[in-house]
What does this fold into?
Amino acid sequence: MSAAQLRILESFPEPEFTALRDAAFAEFGSGSKQLSDVLADEASRQSEVPKAGSPSPQELRTGAFVDNRLVGWSYSRVEENRLHMVNSGVLPEFRGRGIYSDLVKAAISHADAHGLFKIISRHVPSNNAVIIPKLRLGFIVSAFEYSEVYGPLVHLTYLIGEKRRELYLARSKPLVPSNEPDQGPS
It folds into this structure.
């Protein structure tokens, strides 16, 4: 567990969020401006969270705070019966402390509590700071794609519920029993 306090938010505090996002994606160099533009466009097209009551179960904004300072975030939205983890980040000086893993665990809890079947996310293949914690938490590599905006992407999926995970394991076993040598293609 990290030392960060996680909070579900109706909106991220500004200008802290914009500064955090810029810092988190700064390592992408010249592509970070393009990425910021894409993220801003995506954010402008999102439906507003209702002001009254609790945040929408269709969206999940989780902020990670250390001493009331926003140091990390995760934004997800419900698409059909799954939670799509759209983007997240942790300030470089707070990485390696388990904050990102805690944000992912919060998304898993949210998806489970709302009866969703799975969590999906897409990542550039070199983003080990995100991919490795997700694999450790039980995500699986489910697909690859090429995006005109981001380049190559790896899809990760987390299946909610033991029965669904057992079904995946049963269906993903090799067709050749492990005690028989592989004969190769016929």
About this structure: The radius of gyration is 18 Å. The chain is about 30% helix and 30% strand. Residues 45-54 have pLDDT under 50 and may be disordered. Helices lie at 16-24, 31-44, 99-113, 128-136, 162-171.
